[in-house]
Specification:
Elements (H helix, E strand, L loop, with lengths): L15 H7 L5 E6 L2 E6 H13 L1 H15 L1
Antiparallel strand pairs: 1-2
Length: 71
């Protein structure tokens, strides 16, 4: 994670070490999560969302358990 600024053309420049660490290729997905942006390699994002869809019932159950514990 890092703080960044947007240039005059609306771009965010990522340092090489972060692009390498994240395994980013030319095609990326930018996802807004709460108060931040996540930048994913497009192929990795596809795998992640496919897995989440396959486990959606389990994820929903975990969210419900979490919400019940917060009450």
């Amino acid at each position: 994670a890092m703080d960044s600024t947007v240039d005059g053309q609306g771009r965010v420049i990522l340092p090489d070490y972060l692009r390498t660490f994240a395994g980013l290729s030319k095609a990326v997905v930018v996802a807004g999560i709460h108060d931040r942006l996540e930048i994913w390699d497009e192929a990795e994002w596809s795998r992640y969302t496919k897995d989440a869809e396959q486990h959606s019932e389990e994820i929903a159950e975990q969210i419900e358990l979490f919400q019940n514990n917060e009450e």
